[in-house]
Amino acid sequence: MKYIVRTCTGREEFAKYVQDKIPDVIVSLDTQKQAVKNIYNAMLLAGDDPCIHFEDDILITDNFKEKALAVIKDRPDMLVQFFSMRKADLEIGSRIESGRTFLMSQCFYTPPKMSRGIKNFYLKWDRLTTTHSHNAHGVDLLIQDYLKLTKQKYYIHVPSLVDHRICKSAIDPRRSTKRQSLTYRQT
What we know:
The chain is α/β, with parallel strands linked by helices and 187 residues long. It has helices at residues 12-21, 35-46, 64-74, 87-91, 114-124, 136-149; strands at residues 2-8, 26-30, 51-55, 58-60, 79-81, 95-98, 107-110, 153-156, 162-164. The chain contains six helices and nine strands, in the order βαβαββαβαββααββ. The strands form two sheets. The protein has a seven-stranded mixed beta sheet with strand order 2-1-3-7-5-8-6, with helices on both faces. Strands 4-9 form a two-stranded antiparallel ribbon. α1 (12-21) links the parallel β1 (2-8) and β2. α2 (35-46) crosses α5. The radius of gyration is 15 Å and the shape is globular.
């Protein structure tokens, strides 16, 4: 299993926090404020290996690896999302969703070869030339479009194993700082 954190210049302290929690994490550094290019780089780093992808602006539950691997064990061939802030998290709990609903890429697992598939999809992605290609929402759109094209569903795990920090977005400081999970637990 690989672990990759996507970060950008100016947020070194956030990446350091993830490294302290997951010492073998690989850092994918964005120096140009191009979130979608950085997800491409992270997918390139993952190669054909199973991988847990992190954004840098997260808080991580205690014993993250053990908890995540226990969930992945039951779904080794499916994208698993470890962060969500939807009402259904409280009403339904863990569930399988259509790929077209993927949102919030703070922490997710890609099974073997999926990172390569997303990387290859990026190279021909028709939204790459739009304004979405350089913003945080573009990462979600890339993964949504990949899952739709390949007719895949994904699994949302509840409770969330990471939470979104209360902080300004590095890509769009106008975004709300109130984007936290309804189910995250530190322990």
